[in-house]
Amino acid sequence: MGLGSWGLTNSEATKDQTPNTIIYYIRTRFSLMRLFNKQRFEYMGGKNFKKYLKYASGEIILVVIGILIAVGINNWNQRKQLNNANVELKQNIIKQLDKDIEAINVYQKNLDTLQQNYLNYLKTSEDGSNPLFGNILGSLLFEVNTMDIDTHAITMIDNATLNETKASEKLLDLNSAYKMYLEEIKSVERLIFTTITENLKEIERTQDWYTEFITNLKCQNDCVDYFTNNKQHKARIASLRFLYVNGYGQIITALKNDLIGYRKELKAIED
Question: What pLDDT, on a 0 to 100 scale, did the predictor assign at position 10?
Fold first, then answer.
């Protein structure tokens, strides 16, 4: 807005660029602003203000209701997504339980074979006439026959966001059971490995033929006599068999039975 709009011609505006003119301009502007604010206040202080207040209050209420509806819809969508994710998780866990149970069945068959090998070795005649003596001896001395436990179920449950349902409670129980059995299994596995290692160290320490045996896998007369007749060695082998069958094997069997139970219970829970 030019100075001309305040009653000054262009020539006067150009001519009268003095501090007094500028002060007059500023004062006039502030006077108009005070007048406008006064009129607005008078307008809002009358009956129209009550209408305005009702309108503003209604608008605020509508905004709040809209926000609450939006939040409710968002929460409903989140609950729906969470429930769908939990249903899918339960189905995936059941599939994993099927795999784990089948893997245990396979290992139990291998453990039965290992058990028979231990019994055959411990019954070997003094001349080592058992035709399977060499193969059996090698597997018992050097192989650690343990099960590779799958931890996919633990990972899936640990990484999931669970809802408050019976299925979720059962999944948490299953997860705890898996971890408990896994710790017990690893503890016995360490004991089995230590026993096998100490047995080999004892042979290395006491038998002159150990170097040829461990290098060429040849067992001559003294070697055969030791493995078939040495009572201390057979006692260590018998202890190793006990660890496998009565220790490790029983834990694996208990794990399988629990997994079968959890699978049955999860299948019975409706989505």
Answer: 45
- Among the listed residues 219, 222, 218, 240, the one whose alpha carbon sits nearest the alpha carbon of residue 230: 222
Report which listed range, 1-10, 36-45, 112-121, 154-163, is most confident.
154-163
What digits encode the pLDDT tens for the residues 17-45?
445 555 554 455 445 445 445 544 554 55
The verdict on residue 18 lying in a domain is no
Within 8 A by CB and 6+ apart from 195, the residues are 236, 239, 240, 243
Question: Residue 210's pLDDT band (boundaries 50, 70, 90)?
Answer: very high
Flag whether 176 is in a domain: yes
Neighbours of 89 (CB within 10 A): 20
User: How many structural domains comprise the chain?
Assistant: 1
- Helix and strand totals (H; E) in the chain: 10, 0
CA torsion sign for 246, 251, 254, 256 is: negative
Give CA–CA dist 242/67, Å, rounded: 68
Note the pLDDT of residue 21. 53
Q: Give the C-alpha separation, 1 to 3, whole Å.
A: 7
Question: How remote is the C-alpha of 139 from its chain's centroid?
Answer: 36
Structural domain harbouring 179 = 69-268
CA distance 163 to 22: 72
What predicted TM-score, i.e. pTM, was given to this entire model?
0.70
Nearest CA to 236 out of 199, 193, 192 is that of 199
Identify whether 105 is part of a domain. yes
- Does a structural domain hold residue 58? no
